[in-house]
Design goal:
This protein is an all-alpha fold and 181 residues long. Helix content is 76%, strand content 0%. It contains eight helices and no strands. The longest helix has 28 residues, at 133-160.
Length: 181
C-alpha cells in the first residue's frame, strides 16, 4: 500500500468500530443483569472471544471496503453506489443488532435481523467479486462468524423464549380497552 493511501485505509478500517462503541455505551447497563440470566448453550464462547473476534472482523471488513472503494476509483461516483451501498446497509444493520439484543431484549427479532444481515453480506460479497477478489476473501471470516452468531442467537431464542418481552393477552386487551375509552 502506498503511504499516501494510509489516511483513507485507516478511515475505512476505523469506521466499522463506531457503531459497536456507541451500541456498547448504550447496552453496557443491561449486560450484567439481563444477559447473565440467559440460558446459553454449552458451546457458548467466552465473552472475551466476542470482543476479540468482532474487533478483527470490523477492521478486516473495513479494509475490504477500502479495497473496493480504491479499485472503483475512490470518491463517491456512481460505480460505488451498489457495492458500497450494500456495505453501508449491512454495517448499519450490524450496528443495530446490539440495540435489539441488549437494549430491547428481543431474541426473536435479533435472530431475524441476523438472518437479514447474513443475506446482505452474501449479496455484498457477490457484488464485490468482480471488483476485488481479496476483498471478498476478507469477508469469509465475517460470514463464518455470522454463521456462529446466528446459530447462537437461534439457541438463545429457543432456550429463552419465555423471557422475551411480550405483552400478555390480558394486558393487550386492557391496553386496547383504554384506547377505546
Amino acid at each position: 500500500m502506498h503511504w499516501t493511501m494510509w489516511p483513507e485505509s485507516t478511515f475505512f478500517m476505523a469506521l466499522p468500530h463506531v457503531g459497536p462503541i456507541v451500541g456498547w455505551l448504550f447496552a453496557q447497563q443491561h449486560m450484567p443483569t439481563w444477559y447473565e440470566t440467559l440460558k446459553k448453550p454449552p458451546w457458548w464462547p467466552p465473552n472475551k472471544i466476542f470482543l476479540i473476534v468482532w474487533t478483527a472482523i470490523y477492521s478486516t471488513m473495513g479494509y475490504a471496503s477500502y479495497l473496493v472503494w480504491k479499485d472503483l476509483g475512490g470518491g463517491f461516483g456512481r460505480p460505488l453506489a451498489l457495492p458500497l451501498g450494500l456495505y453501508a446497509t449491512q454495517l448499519v444493520l450490524n450496528w443495530i443488532i446490539l440495540l435489539l439484543f441488549f437494549g430491547a431484549h428481543n431474541l426473536g427479532l435479533a435472530l431475524c435481523h441476523l438472518l437479514l444481515l447474513y443475506g446482505l453480506v452474501l449479496g455484498m460479497a457477490l457484488s464485490w467479486h468482480s471488483i476485488n477478489g481479496l476483498a471478498v476473501l476478507l469477508l469469509l471470516p465475517y460470514l463464518a462468524w455470522l454463521t456462529l452468531t446466528t446459530s447462537l442467537a437461534y439457541r438463545l431464542w429457543m432456550d429463552n423464549s419465555s423471557s422475551e418481552p411480550q405483552l400478555s393477552s390480558q394486558s393487550q386487551v386492557q391496553s386496547m380497552g383504554e384506547k377505546i375509552d
